[in-house]
């Protein structure tokens, strides 16, 4: 029972986010996403529709999966950055978003499915490290 309380506490205190750097054709998956998914070896990005996608854990390499960096939690500067011109261009174009802007998208964890879902309609625009616009729907 204590484990359930700990998991619930963690879910309420984490920042589940996914950053899209249009100008650099890259994206960053936050450490908290990897933590809440149980520290998987790989994660897959699955596009559901125009506005929705998910980060799904996996222990084996799959299509559109990426290896979680080994130094993600061992160094302060560890990041999970993925360069994918195709994915970045597609997700931004589908949502009529500017390729020269950085977007931070909030995620929602499904304990039942052990998946973090992202809705592109719920994003923040960040310029020089400062939020300049929030789009919450």
Structure description:
20% of the residues are buried. This protein has helices spanning 2-13, 31-36, 85-94, and strands spanning 17-21, 26-29, 42-47, 52-58, 65-67, 80-83, 102-110, 115-127, 130-135. Helices cover 20% and strands 42% of the residues. Strands 1, 2, 3, 4, 5, 6, 7, 8 and 9 form a nine-stranded antiparallel beta sheet that branches. With 137 residues, the protein is an alpha+beta fold. The longest helix has 12 residues, at 2-13. The model is unreliable at 1-11 (pLDDT under 50).
- Give helix % range: 10-25%
The end-to-end distance, rounded to whole angstroms, is 35 Å
Strand content: 35-45%
Structural class by secondary-structure content: alpha+beta
What spatial form do the alpha-carbon principal axes imply?
globular
Q: Helix count, per DSSP?
A: 3
Number of strands: 9
Overall mean pLDDT: 85
Radius of gyration: 15 Å
**Biggest sheet overview:** 9 strands, antiparallel
Task: Give the low-pLDDT segments.
Answer: 1-11
Summarize the helix and strand pattern as letters: HEEHEEEEHEEE
